[in-house]
Amino acid sequence: MQHSEMNYVKKALPSNLRSIGLLLLIAGIILGLVAYFIDQPRAMFNYLISYMFLISIGVGSLFLISLEYVANADWSVPLRRVIEHLAAIIPLLFILVLPLFFSIHDLFHWSHPEAVSEDKILQGKAPYLNATFFIIRSIAAIVIWSLFYFFISRNSLKQDETKDQKLTKTNIKLSAAFIPFFAVTITVSAIDWMMSLEPHWFSTIFGVYFFAGTVVASLAAVTLFVVKLKEKEYLHPKVTNDHLFSLGALMFAFVNFWAYIAFSQYLLIWYADLPEETFWFLHRWEGSWTVFSIALIVMHFIVPYAVLLAQPAKMDMKKLKFISIWLLAAHLLDLFWLVMPNMSVHAHGYVFSWIDLVFPVFIVGFVILVFYYRANKTNLLPSGDPKLNRALDFHI
Amino acid sequence: MRNRLFAVAALFESPDKIIKAADAVASQGFRKFDVNTPYPVHGMDKAMKLKPSKLGFVTLFFGLTGTAIGLILTYWTMSVDYPLVIGGKPFFALPAFIPILFELTVLLATLATVFGMFAFFFNLPHNDHPIHDTEYMKMTSYDKYGIYIESADEHFDESKIKRLFTDLGAVKIYDLAYPEKITYPIFEPKFVTFLIITFVAVSGATYLTLNKLLYITPFNWMMDQLREDVQDVSQYLPDQPSMRTPVQGTVARGFIPYPYKGINNPTEVLTNPILPTQENLNLGRKKYLSYCSPCHGNFGNGDSRLRGQFPNPPTLHSKRAREFSDGMIYHIITNGQNVMPSYESQVTREERWAIVNYIRVLQRAKNAQESDLEVAKKEFEKNAAQ
Predict the structure, then answer these.
(1) Average pLDDT over chain A, rounded to whole?
(2) Which end of chain B has fewer CB within 10 Å, C or N?
(3) Would the CB atoms of A271 and B87 count as touching at under 8 Å?
(4) β-strand partners of B177
(5) Model confidence over B81-132: pLDDT tens digits?
(6) How many whole angstroms separate alpha carbon A12 and alpha carbon A229?
(7) pLDDT over 70 percentage in chain A
C-alpha cells in the first residue's frame, strides 16, 4: 500500500516571504495614501482596479475549488490548499471595499443627483443605480462569497484531522450551490463596479467578459504559486508535470475563452453600429488609448496563446512561471483598460502619472501576506482528502 | 506447417503490472512492441517511452490552412469578386470574417486530426493484422492487460522474451503467428466469365425493362401541340381562320359607344360629365396644345402658321363657337367638321372632354366681362396679400 502521502511533513514558509510581503504592502499603502492626497480621483480609480483584481484572484480561486468538487476532479487535490490560501482574500474584501464606499462620488457619475436630474437615461436607471442599493448589492456579494468560502475551506481543513469522507460530499453540495450564486454575483459586481462607470453604456456580455478574465487571473495566480512552491520543494514530490499540465491546459482554455468573449462583445457592437453602444469602444480608440487596446489583444491573447499552444510548454515550469506572471499583468491591463478611460482626465487619451504604478505594489504585497499567514496556519497538502492517493498517481 | 512467428505476447492481471512490464520491455531496448488494454491506462506513454505524437503538427498545419482558406474565401468573394456594401461596412470587413476564419480553422484542424490519425498513424484500413481473432486479443478486450513483442524487432529472442514475461508475472504467454495467407484470385477464367455474364444480364435486363417493358411514350418535344397558330387555317373548323371574328354587337372591354357618330348636325348631343378641375384643365391644355393648336392656334384664335395654306381654320372665339354647347364641341372633335378630320382615334374620351373644358377657359379669358375682372382682381389681391 502507498503511504507516501502520510509521510508529508509540514514545512514552514521562509520568513523572508513575510518581510517581502510586508514591505511591499506598507510601501503600497503609504504611496497610495500620498497619491490619495495629491490626486484623489485618480487614486480612487486605481484603488478600484486593485479591488477588482483582488476579487478576480480571491473569488476566482473559490470558483476553481468549487469546480474541483463539482467535476469530482482528482488532479487538483494536492494543489487545492494553494487555491484555498488565495481564496482567503475573500473575507478581507469587507475591509477593502470600505474606501470605495466613501468615494462613490469620485467614481460614479450616476451618484450625483444633479447629473441624474437632467439626464433621462440616468433617471430610468435610477431604481438600480443608486448609492443605497449599490452598497447593499456589494455587501451582499461579499457576504455570499465569504459564507461559501468559510464553509468550504472549514470542511476541507477539518478533513485533515478527521479524514471524514462525508466532508467531501458536503463540499460537493456546497460547491454546486455556490456556482449559480457565483454566476450572479460576479456579473453584478462587474456591472456595478466597472460598467456603471459609464452609466450610458450597456453590454449584456460584460459579466461573462469579467468572469473570463477572473478565471484567467486566478489560474495564473495559482500556477505562479504552485510553480514557485514546487521549485522550492514545498509541494509533495508526487506533484509532477502532469499536474502542471492540467493547470497549463486550463489556463490555455480560458485565455481562448476570454478572447472569444471579448471578440463576441466587440463584433456585435461593431456590426450593429449603434451610437449608444459604439462610443465606448470609440473612446478606447482615441489618442493613446489605441496603444492600450492593441496591447490588450497582444498581451491577453496572442502571446499567451502562442506560448501555451504546444503540449510541452504546458508542463515547462519556466514557461509556466513566465506566462502566469504575464497573464496577471494582462488581467491588470484588462481592468485598467475597462476602468481608466472613464476618468475625465483621460478624455482624449491616456495621461501618465506615477500613481498608476503604485497600486500593483500594494496588490502583490497583499496577496503574498494573505498567502503567507494562511499557509503557515494550515497544511499545504489536504492530507485527509479521500481522493489524494489517486490524485498523486495522476498521469495524463 | 507452423506459420512464421509474428510476435510473442503475454497477458497480465492488473494495470500496475502492465505498466511495469511495458517499462521493462522498453528499457531492454525493444522498439517494435505494443500494449493492448481494455481501457486507456494513464502513464502508458511514459512507460512505453514513446516519443510525443506528431499528430499535433498535422492539426496545426491544417488549422492554419483552414485560416488561410477562410481568409482567401471571404476576401475574394466579399471584397474582390462581388463587393457588396452590407450595413455600411467596408468591403474588407475583417471582424465580420473572423467567425468564418475561426470555423474553417476548427473544421479543417479536427477533420485532418481524425483522418490523419486513421490514415497515417493507425495505418487503417488494416484487415489482416496477426493479432486479430486470437485468444490474446479477446482477453485484452475483456479483463486482461496484454503486451506483445514483434519478431521483427532487432533484439528479438523468443526464449529470452518468454523468460522476461514470466519474471514480470505474466499469467499467460502466447506465440502469435502470421495467419494463413488467403488469396482471392481475381483473374480466374471462371470469375471473369461470371463478371461478363453478370454485366450482360444486368445491362440487358435494364435495357429491356426501361425501353420495352415499362415504355411510356415520351412527351413529344413541344413540336406538336394542341393549339391554333394565329393567322392560320383552323384545325377544327373547316374553311375558317384560326382567329374567330367576334359576334355582331360585341363591345370591347371598357369601350363606351358614341351614339351620334357620323351625324353632321346633330339635334341632340351629350352633356359634359367632367368637372373642370385644375387637374383636368392641365390635361386639356396639354392635349389641346398637342392636337388642336397646330390649326386653331395656341389661344384658339385660328392664327396658327397654317393660315393661308389651307382653308383657314376658324377662330374658337366667334359668337357661334361660344354658343356651342359642350356636347357639340365634343361632337365636332369626335366626328370632325368640314376639313377637320375626326380625332376619335388620337384622343381618348376623357381627354376630349378635358379639351372641351380647356376651350371654355380660353373662350372666357378672351371675352372677359366686367364681373370677371372683379373676380380676377380679388384673386390677385388675395395672392399679393399672402
Answers:
(1) 92
(2) N
(3) yes
(4) B5
(5) 999 888 889 999 999 999 999 999 999 999 999 998 888 878 777 777 888 8
(6) 12
(7) 98
- B269 within a domain of the structure (yes/no): no
Q: Are residues B14 and B137 in the same domain?
A: yes
User: Which of A271, A285, A293 is the best residue to mutate to test the B interface, defined by the most B CB atoms within 10 Å of its own CB?
Assistant: A271
Q: What is the CATH number of the domain that holds B365?
A: 1.10.760.10
pLDDT digits (tens, 9 = 90+) for B35-60: 999 998 888 888 888 888 888 889 99
Q: Which of residues 174-203 of A touch B (CB under 8 A)?
A: none
Residue type, B313: P
User: Residue B371 — pLDDT band, cuts 50, 70, 90?
Assistant: confident
DSSP lists the bridge partners of residue B176 as: B7
Q: How many domains does chain B have?
A: 2
Among A309, A312, A395, select the one facing B43 at the smallest CB separation: A395
Looking only at the bridges linking them, the beta strands covering B145-150 and B33-36 are antiparallel
What range does the domain containing A208 cover? 13-381
Q: Is residue B146 part of a domain?
A: yes
- Cross-chain CB nearest to A273 (options B88, B98, B99): B88
CB contacts < 8 A (A, B): 25
B55 touches chain A (CB under 8 A): no
B42–chain A nearest CA distance, Å: 5
Interface touch A312/B52, C-beta < 8 Å: yes
pLDDT tens per residue, range A207-221: 999 999 999 999 999
- Residue B241 near chain A (CB below 8 Å): no
Three-state DSSP state, B172: strand
> Is A265 part of any domain?
yes
Q: Which residues of B touch A263 (CB under 8 A)?
A: 95, 98
For residue A177, pLDDT over 90 is answered with: yes
CA A24 to CA A18: how far, in whole Å?
A: 10
ipTM over 0.90: no
Q: Could you give phi then psi for residue A220, rounded to 5 degrees?
A: -65, -40
Q: Hey, is the C-beta of A310 within 8 angstroms of any chain B C-beta?
A: yes
Q: Which residues pair with A327 in a beta bridge?
A: none
Domain count, chain A: 1
* Among the listed residues A238, A224, A177, the one whose alpha carbon sits nearest the alpha carbon of residue A322: A224
Are B136 and B174 in contact by the 8 Å Cβ rule? The answer is: yes
**For residue A235, is pLDDT > 90?**
no
Write the pLDDT tens digit of every residue in B278-334.
888 999 999 999 898 888 888 888 888 777 777 778 888 888 888 888 888 898 888
Cell of A87: 481564496
Tell me, yes or no, whether A392 lies in a domain. Answer: no
From B177, B201, B227, give the residue that closes a domain: B177
Say if B88 falls within a structural domain. Answer: yes
Same-domain pairing of B165 and B29? yes
Query: Is A393 within a domain?
Result: no
With contact defined as beta carbons under 8 Å apart, do A196 and A293 qualify?
no
Which chain A residues are Cβ-neighbours of B96 within 8 angstroms? 267, 271
Query: Is B320 inside a domain boundary?
Result: yes
List the domain range (segments joined by +) for residue B130: 5-177
Query: For residue A233, is it left (φ>0), alpha (ψ between -120 and 50) or beta?
Result: left
